[in-house]
Amino acid sequence: MKLIILGLITGILFGFLLQKARVIRYDKQLGALRLIDMTIIKFMFSAVLVSMVGVYLLYDLGLVELSIKTTILGTNIVGGLLFGIGWGMLGYCPGTSLGAVGEGRFDALWGILGMIVGAGIFAEFYPALQNTVYTWGDLGKITLADVLGINHWIIIILFIIAGLLLFRWFEKKGL
Fold first, then answer.
1. Residue 22 CB: number of other CB atoms within 10 A?
2. CA nearest 115: which of 90, 152, 78, 139?
């Protein structure tokens, strides 16, 4: 029960941050899709960088165990295409569509309905997918640090440096 409450609090906090960063606004979504407004990219990349540090710090302190998921190229490519098509058609990604509804923009309900229908279709076709797309490019449980054979903190530091340089470039370009 504690974990459910913690998850709820974390979700509310994340939604608040999405709203404060203005990334649930349709104009920001469209700007990201047209590569003329990097607000969403900066917000999400910042979240990824903070998460990388937090997760691996907790892991190295022995407070959590990592459950690395299997990397399957087929599912990543198909899922990425479906995500991108949905985002492009609707103008919201799944998280921002929920936030948009919370702000009273009910056009995002079409996306939420699409997610529910899509989940049902996926569940119906999952047995067939296991013998097709789930077998294309199965690389096993890998991480970038494992592939390169280096410590994960080197990867994290490189990503932080790259992120800071990217953010600086975005600011210089007015993105």
1. 12
2. 90
Q: Which of 69, 48, 56 is nearest to 154 (CA)?
A: 56
**Stated pTM of the model:** 0.76
Work out the burial of residue 9: count CB atoms within 10 Å of its CB; fewer than 13 is exposed, 13-18 middle, 19 or more buried. Answer: exposed
Amino acid identity, position 160: I
pLDDT of 98-125, one tens digit each?
A: 888 888 888 889 989 989 999 999 999 9
H helix or E strand, kind and range, residue 127: helix 109-130
Q: How confident is the model at residue 75 (pLDDT cuts 50, 70, 90)?
A: very high
Whether 55 and 49 have beta carbons less than 8 Å apart is answered as no
Q: How many CB atoms lie within 10 A of CB 68?
A: 10
Residue 37 gets which letter from DSSP?
-
The residue assigned the tokens 């540090």 is 53
H helix count then E strand count, the chain: 8, 2
Q: How far apart are CA 45 and CA 31, in angstroms?
A: 16
